[in-house]
Amino acid sequence: MATNVMDKFLLGAAGIAAYPPGATFGPRLLFDFEFLWIIAGSANCDFDGQKFHAGKGTVILGRPGMTDRYNWDTQERTLLAFFHFSFDYSEGDWPELKTWPLTRTVAAEDILPTLFRYVIGLARSDQPGKEVLIESTVGLMLRSFLTGQSAVRLEPHQDLPEPIQKALRAIRDALAKDPVEPVTLAALARAAHVSPEYLCRLFRRHLNLGPLECAGLARLERAASLLVRSNLTVKEIADAVGFASPYHFSTKFRKVYGVSPKYYRWSMQSGFMITGNPVIEHLQLQT
């Protein structure tokens, strides 16, 4: 599944609904898709005889042809967000409808609740071009829901060994404190509580880079941000992030980004995106 384009997309009813304790809804035959997010309360649900309990934080995707029924929480009010939509799912690379999951439980760092609010807000607005925005957002939501890849990791390198995590945080903190000061292998090893040799082996094994190479890439990413979001000259940026000279900075920058700093600035400010440093994008080091 590669894009969020949804052929013949139409948005139906959308909004927020509140049900008093003990209320019921259905049975109802669905003629389109319905995304539903339980914000508070809960429900006992029945979709074509498949019964399940949906608590707070559950996202449900009803599909055309299904018959659903809800018995809402008997102890407290149930609050939910919902919207209906239709599209030609036979076009493109969508999986077979029968393989689609019915529910997912979202965590605090999940993107789906934020996107629910965005879609419903757009649906109620008079914003020009909202149809395109809604379609792309619903496409993102649907693909995230189908793949289960909707959580935003708060620590993007949390699956790496602890010494690497500590060293990456040390790189981030050192550059934030003083971008000009060199980052040393000895300092990173102390922060990671391992020997320099062991830290290098870990980095090579898991990232295919050395600790100081990661520090250099993080430094370049800081420079890339300044190129786009400041009026500093290339020389001033080279000085600000700790490169010995503009020539040294430009050489390193071109090796990683494929273009000169001046061209990178012009391209990004003109709206032409240049692929960033893939290592930094993977690690999401704070710059």
Textual characterization of the structure:
The chain is an alpha+beta fold and 287 residues long. It folds into two domains: 10-147, Regulatory protein AraC (Jelly Rolls, Sandwich), CATH 2.60.120; 162-283, Homeodomain-like (Arc Repressor Mutant, subunit A). It is 42% helix and 20% strand. The protein has helices at 112-124, 130-147, 162-177, 185-192, 196-207, 211-229, 234-241, 246-257, 261-269, 278-283, and strands at residues 10-19, 24-29, 33-40, 43-47, 50-54, 58-62, 67-72, 78-86, 103-105. It has a five-stranded antiparallel β-sheet, with helices on one face. Strands 2-7-4-5 form a four-stranded antiparallel β-sheet, with no helix packed on it. A hairpin with a 2-residue loop joins strand 4 and strand 5 (50-54). Helix 3 (162-177) crosses helix 4. The two termini are 31 Å apart. 25% of the residues are buried. The model is unreliable at 281-287 (pLDDT under 50).
Q: What topology does this entry show?
A:
Layout: E1 10-19, E2 24-29, E3 33-40, E4 43-47, E5 50-54, E6 58-62, E7 67-72, E8 78-86, E9 103-105, H1 112-124, H2 130-147, H3 162-177, H4 185-192, H5 196-207, H6 211-229, H7 234-241, H8 246-257, H9 261-269, H10 278-283
Antiparallel strand pairs: 1-8, 2-7, 3-6, 3-8, 4-5, 4-7, 6-9
Helix pairs in contact: 1-2, 3-4, 3-6, 6-7, 7-8
